[in-house]
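Running this now, will post back.
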Amino acid sequence: MADDTPRKDTGAPPPRWILKAMTRAHIFLHRLTGGRYFNTLSGDEVCFVEMKGAKSGRTLTFPLMYVPYHDGVVLVASQGGAPKNPVWYANLVKNPDIEVSHRGHRVKLRARLATPEERPEIWPVCDEHYAPFADYRARTDRVIPIFVCEPRE
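Update: finished.
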């Protein structure tokens, strides 16, 4: 479904420690291969998002599902349908200037939360690029944040 209506049960999200370990391994292997490999997750495209940490101020990198949208990308703070937002959510809220890398192409973008009016148009695009987003929405009662990331001027 393409709406924000909370639904129940399509399984439980993975434990946070598994997500964290998978994220670190994915980034390490991508860097180890000079970016030639690990550009997908189960056949779906991944981008690497560099952002400034909300608390630490350090530059952090997260592999996230690649959802092209207009001249930028959309980032979905689903965390597999977990009851809480992913840690990177707070980073983008506090520090919206990011750099996104996808298959060797790097672009500087500014993230903003999608408005309630935009969300119905954006969800089908997200689902087209990564079908499990629909399951994640069904798993949680929270409204999953969507960031629209547009070129910086």
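The first strand starts at residue 40 and ends at 41. More later if anyone needs it.
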